[in-house]
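Appendix B. Extra example for self-study. Work through it before the problem class; the solution is given directly after the inputs so you can check yourself.
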Amino acid sequence: MQRLLFVIPVVLFLGLAAYFGLALTRDPSTLPSALIDKPAPAFALAGLGTKPPLARDDFAGQVVLVNFFASWCVPCRAEHPILMRMAEQEKLTLYGIAYKDRPEDAQRFLTQLGDPYSRIGVDQSGRVGIDFGVYGVPETYVIDKAGNIRLRHVGPLTASDLQNEILPLLKQLGRS
Amino acid sequence: MTRALSFFILIAALTFGAMGPGFAVEPNERLADPALEARARGISDHLRCLVCQNETIDDSHADLAHDLRVLVRERLTAGDSDSQTIAFITARYGDFVLLKPPVKGATLVLWYGPLAILLIGAVGTVVWFRRRKMTGVEEPAPLTDVERSRLKQMMTEGES
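Solution. Structure tokens for the complete assembly:
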């Protein structure tokens, strides 16, 4: 009994140390989404240039990727080749939302780097971004057939994110 | 002397004036109604700016902080209560947006953990002291006759 009393603080300390040690390996700038497994917020945005507008109901019943980007966002340029690869090689349906960007700037960005998106909504006020809980572009969301958000990826997508995170999830969700 | 003093007061006023809260709230964001504006300030003082993470949206110059300040004011103007406004934000950004985490299942350890550890320590200390009192401080056995006579002998030897 008496020995136990001395062991408890040691065990507590080791537990805390292990917890904090593990926490050190996590990236504090990547926040969990409050909307995981919840319905994607409804929105209806004007399209970019001559493209049709984009609303949530446009992709009801499909597994889709929604990518928030902006021409002023440097990491968006970094992830752009991956988005192009997703659209061209993996034949994924990508919807883009131009976040707090002027339409002409977003258009120039896509003319320069290529346009991986099936459709693009222009969210100039950033309100749709707030509804999704976006706190920094680029952010990518995976939405399932029921319209629920299944994944949020904060920051530029890398080839390994695509291989290890996005593609397995899409497969699991039954993308045709 | 008076000049030095007024200079000092000026410096102090500039320093502390600049350090005051709400440094980031821009004039065009403020509401005309002072009561609503005060409520908005109270709310945004407890909301985390997700870009800078350890600043309130009231203090932050980040673009998103500005948008959230405007959003808070919009909700209040639309007639939302303080808690409805906060719920609107947490529905989108999660509890992390609150600088003071709410008391609920997942945060019980956070709120009461330190108190629990303190109690465990206090109980342990009390038990330890009690045990020592019971076992450690026994009355020493009285001297036997042999010991007493030896002691007497030693005392007289010392005298001679």
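Self-check: Residues 21-102 of chain B form a domain with the Helicase, Ruva Protein; domain 3 fold (CATH 1.10.8.640). If your reasoning did not lead you there, revisit section 3.
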